[in-house]
Each structure stands twice: as structure tokens, then as C-alpha cells.
Amino acid sequence: MKTGLFLQAVFPDDQGFDSRCQFFCSSISPQGLNNMLFSNQKNCILCDSTSTEDFCKPCTAHLPWLLQQHCPVCLWPTPDGQICGACLQKPPAYTRTVAALSYTFPVDALIQALKYQANLAIAPILARLIIKKLHDTPYKPDLLVPMPLHPARLRERGFNQAMELSRVISRQMNIPILTNGCQRTKNTPPQARLPWKARRSNIRNAFECTMTLSGKHVAIVDDVMTTGTTLNELAIILRRQGAAEISNWIVARTLPETNLLDSPH
Ligand SMILES: [Zn+2]
Ligand SMILES: [Zn+2]
Predict the structure, then answer these.
(1) How far is the CA of 24 from the centre of ligand 1 (A)?
(2) Structure confidence at residue 91 (pLDDT)
(3) Displacement of CA 100 from its chain's centroid (Å)
(4) Labelling 208: which of 22, 103, 200, 246 has CA 20 to 30 A away?
């Protein structure tokens, strides 16, 4: 292993340490990390080979892109890309979801490094992956709404990763960000720690929005979509404020390889 730096950055509690992590850590050189953080030189952040992009061509090809057919509303895999049974039966408040990747290695490690070690240099890299995915999207929202963090969590972390992603998307796509219009008023335990059925009651009434959004198309920006429960709760509030259309723009979606028996939301 060339360095323990990234190992420590990705898994501060030694949680999730496994062979994937060893590969990832051994493939990040101190020089590559240094370049990523402090210079304009773009070495591939995964393998450190020279690259004009964030990821070299072979690493780009191996990223877990969402290529299969899926429900356009929640991204659950469906034959021929039709709307899934859960969305037909109980349509979510959001209109559609776009995610660049599946929440699996190495994207999970990158997102964890951004969130839990404040490795902010990773935010624009992840934002560019969303933008790439949106390349031929035929619509443009009026506003971006970064998924709000509760003020206590924001103080603890020092930044909101969804806001960091939104800043880059806003600049590159020329879409304003709705700042301070929506707040998280309930400091809930992280959804990932709860059984799926407890997630809805955990997040219910967690948001407040004061802005009038009559007829607007808003895009909620977030890093990970798991069940969609949190996104739906925010979308319900945005609808109440008059939003006509709501898109979710997400870096990575967790998919059924790990949750085969669970329903999407
Ligand atoms: Zn590479
Ligand atoms: Zn669906």
C-alpha cells in the first residue's frame, strides 16, 4: 500500500474495511492526492495515471454507471424502462430521478471521503458526473434545491455536501440555487441506520419551506438516493409551496444487488 492517508480518509472508524478498500487505497498515490487537492494537474484520482479528466479512460469505463433500464421516476430496474409497480401504485411527489451511478465501489468510497472527512475537492468531481449524465436532458429546472442538512448537523460537519454539489452544477448549467428557502427542522438519525419501514416516520415533517414556488420546476440535488423516502418528504413540501415539477439530481443510487427483497419506496 502506497499510503494510509486515503484509507484513513475513507474509513475513519475502520468500518467497511475490505479488499475493495485495499485496492482503492493502493491505487491512490500521495502524489495523486496532492495533485487532486492542490494543483490544476489532472491525474486520474483512482489510478493516478495522467489524464485530462477527473478519471482516466479505463477507470471511467469501470465506474458503476447506471446503464440498465429503470423506472424513470425512482430508477428501480424495470424491463424496458417502464414505471415500476411501486411508483404506479403510490406515485411519489417527485416527477423523475436522474442519477449518474450506482452506489457501489469506488463511488461509495468517494462520497464517504467527501462527507466524513471533508474532502471537499471531491465535490466538483461528483458534480461533474451528474452534469455528464444530464448532457442530453431535454429540460432545465428553474431552481436547484440542495437537500438541506439540519443546522446541528451542518455545524458538526461544517458544510452541506448537497450545497457543494449544487454550487458546481449551478455555475456550469446556469441555474440559480434556492438558498435558505427550505430548512430541515427535525434532526433525524441517519436513514441508513434505520430499518426501511421506520424511515418514513423518521423523516416525516422534517422540512419547512417558506418560499413560494408556484409553477416552478425545481431540481433537488443530493449525493445518495437509497429508498427515496427523504427525497419524497422534501418533494411533498415543495409541492405544497406550489412546485409544478420536481426532478431529483443525484450522484449515486443504491440498487437491488444489496436489497433484492426490499421495495424501492
Ligand atoms: Zn484511472
Ligand atoms: Zn419507480
Answers:
(1) 11
(2) 97
(3) 9
(4) 103
